[in-house]
Write a structure and sequence with these properties.
Blueprint lengths: L2 H14 L4 H8 L1 H4 L3 H8 L14 H14 L7 H22 L4 H4 L8 H9 L2 H21 L3
Helix pairs in contact: 1-2, 1-9, 2-4, 2-5, 2-9, 5-6, 5-9, 6-9
Length: 152
């Protein structure tokens, strides 16, 4: 099993233990940055369910984007080129994710079902979409992020 596959397994285990997609993806990369996994879990917590349960951008994608920002983003002593590189790599990730799954929108990725509607949330659970769909999104996000972080 390669490093990416190990990260995918960790992200899936994290998700299955009750964390959201964004937390599951971002925290998997804690070792890449020498950061505490707990800090990354906290940082990503509002980004789950399409950002604060608004079902906009998929949490797996936002978790991946935060990891890209940690490596390539513009910091205090950074340059404008750093920010532009982070944007370009973020767009690359989003484009590749969309080409695999059709989009990056959480609601669309969950068959257009609304998590904030009780009957539609029941349908999401009945169809087991968190396990049949979200696990795939998490795996894709981890794989694409790992490729970007490792310059593959």
């Amino acid at each position: 099993m390669n490093t990416t596959e190990k990260k995918q397994q960790l992200a899936i285990a994290t998700f299955q233990s009750g964390y959201n997609c964004a937390q599951s993806v971002l925290s998997t990369f804690s070792i890449n940055f020498g950061l505490e996994r707990d800090s990354l879990l906290k940082l990503a917590s509002p980004f789950g369910s399409g950002i604060a349960k608004t079902q906009e951008t998929c949490g797996a994608v936002t978790g991946a984007l935060m990891a890209i920002g940690l490596k390539y983003g513009k910091g205090i002593n950074g340059k404008e080129e750093d920010k532009q590189q982070a944007y370009a790599l973020a767009q690359k990730l989003m484009t590749e994710f969309s080409s695999i799954h059709g989009c990056t929108n959480c609601k669309k990725l969950l068959n257009d079902l609304d998590m904030n509607n009780e009957s539609e949330m029941a349908k999401i659970k009945e169809l087991d979409l968190f396990n049949t769909h979200c696990l795939n999104y998490i795996q894709t996000a981890v794989k694409l992020t790992d490729q970007i972080l490792e310059n593959k």
